[in-house]
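Our preliminary data section would be incomplete without showing what the modeling component actually yields. Below, a chain of 341 amino acids is followed by its predicted structure, encoded as tokens that our downstream tools consume directly.
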Amino acid sequence: MATIRNRGGNFQVQVRRKGFPLINKSFSTNLAAKQWGRRTETDMDNGTWVDTTKSQITNVDGIIDNLVYSFERFGLEIDSPKSSSLNGIKAYFGGESIHDLSVDDILNFAAFRRKTVGANTLQKQMYFFRQAIQTSRIRLEENVVEIAIKELTTRKIIMGSKQRDRRLEEGEYERLVEAAGKHKWIMLAVDLALTSGMRMGEIHALKHTDIDFDKKLITLLRKDIKSEGGKKKAKIPLFNSVRDVILRGYNYFDGGDTLFKIERAGSISDKFALIVKKARIEGLDFHDLRHEALTRMFEPKERGGRGMSIEQVKLVSGHSSFDQLARYVNLRPEDLVEQDD
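Predicted structure:
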């Protein structure tokens, strides 16, 4: 018979069976503890119980490291956003064993992340967590990550990306500058996004050696499912406005291979979310800046845009078709009305 004790608000259940080791686990509710105890006893009685404590790697940071190695062993590089998401999981759970985590623990992590990231970003991070567990081949009594994903999906806490039409409104940029205060680096990232149209991961990974001031070109490593390793080198123009941002930020960029000295790409979106909140701006995330930049490239020069063609903007954005690019173009109906005057 399973024994349950209330210890500091957690319910610890112990299961003793002749011929089996003593096992225990803690839960946040008495009901969850009882259900686990009954299920474990049933599995022992019918011969299906598995001693998961004998798994080679069970701590979360080891599981994440194992996923990273599964790419590195073949010379494949994990892109910055994914690497940042995985490091975020490691930082939160540390050396805790996956066997000691409950569904509540995973949901608490999701709630913590949802404070600073959108539903789509959180969905990707949860999927990366699931991938790490699958790659580890650990035998689990209960896949708490998979259960949490299903619950988050049902509640629409996580979901796929939706087409957005959010653009910077008048005065919002100035409010961001004021909210950033002494944290000048985040506004350098903002300005690079607005002038170049680069993705957050591309900005974070940008190296000094990627910038050719003489030829006015920037070399990026972009996703390409048809290329070996899933990536290929791409060149985009070094616009004068982009060059000015880089030169203006050289006091900050000085030293190291990459321009930005932050370890995780996710630190950019996290810091941006904080200054957006401080500036009391609603519904704006860092990826919206890429939408803004690409839209400005289409807008006529007399309205402050670049007046570029579809093919020209595709070259900068890295999209393979206009259908993909169209999701990023948010021309305002008001602008067309003014052109008709």
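The first strand starts at residue 3 and ends at 7. The radius of gyration is 25 Å. Preliminary results of this kind motivate Aim 1 of the renewal.
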